[in-house]
Amino acid sequence: MGVVIPLEEGKNKQGSIKPLVDLTKGDMDRVNQLILSKAGSDVQMIPEVANHLISSGGKRLRPMLTLAAAQMFGYQGEGHIKLATSVEFMHTATLLHDDVVDESDLRRGKSTARMIWGNQASVLVGDFLLGQAFKMMVEVGSLDALDVLASAAAVIAEGEVLQLSVAKNMETTEDDYLSVIRAKTAALFAAAAEVGPIIANTEKAGRNALKSYGMNLGLAFQLVDDALDYGGKAAELGKNVGDDFREGKITLPVILSYRRGTEEERSFWKRAIEGGDSSDANLEQALALIAKYNGLGDTIARAKHYGMIARDALAPLPASAHKAALMEVIDFCIERVS
């Protein structure tokens, strides 16, 4: 692989996930124990496939959001542990299914489950984890929390199908793209944050604040991810640089570069993305065009915009260690581009 576009943003890192990790550590230890317990099965392949991904080093940001959101509103029960585990299982199931749909070889720097056990096992173990997630939601006994997470599961599936429908279509608009990532990624962030205040019986304003925070954090998170695919390093990404290009995914750096390009350059994008000509030489040209039209810089600018909306969503809430930690998470997610 040749040129990788250097991302200049975020040289002076300030955002950190550490305050959130520290605040939720005790509860996350319990979540991790429950994850291992609920991923167990007498069918040997189920824990093998599940643990391959579960133990592969993800930050578990989504379940930490659930725990922190419940804690910041004074929740004293046990339900947040099961809801946080449900959120992580939903996320893991989505990754297992995504890797099959996208025909991905790497996930977090390791071979994907589908490469080891095959597509069928990956899909079915993902289904098992979704089943376990919904069992735990029911055990918590909050119909509102169940409604939020069940609705998110449906929206995520819609997002996956929408992404499939716009794949390799260079006429995809920025609005189409935002609809995909709002459903595919941001919906689970929003649900993960919202169920915390729900089980803490918080007033509507608090619930709405965390929902808006999660939604906009998720949008910022995915925008940065999509920039990193063209501007990161394989070791940091846990996947190959340019995977989105090879899979024909229409992400914002591509959309912006296509719209801003000459007729000849747009013809190139059509050949490469719609025609499936994702050779290394064409990836090099794609990187050059994205650099020429500032596709990465403007994608990061969009991410910062949604980060500000997430920050504003939390602004009316009382000052607390949890609020400060959630604010830092915004900067952490955006500053991954450095």
Automatic annotation (TrEMBL):
Belongs to the FPP/GGPP synthase family. InterPro entries: Isoprenoid_synthase_dom_sf, Polyprenyl_synt, Polyprenyl_synt_CS. Coiled coil: none annotated. The lineage of its organism: Bacteria, Pseudomonadati, Pseudomonadota, Alphaproteobacteria, Hyphomicrobiales. Keywords: Magnesium, Metal-binding, Transferase. The keyword Metal-binding applies. This is Polyprenyl synthetase family protein. It comes from the Bacteria. Its cofactor is Mg(2+).
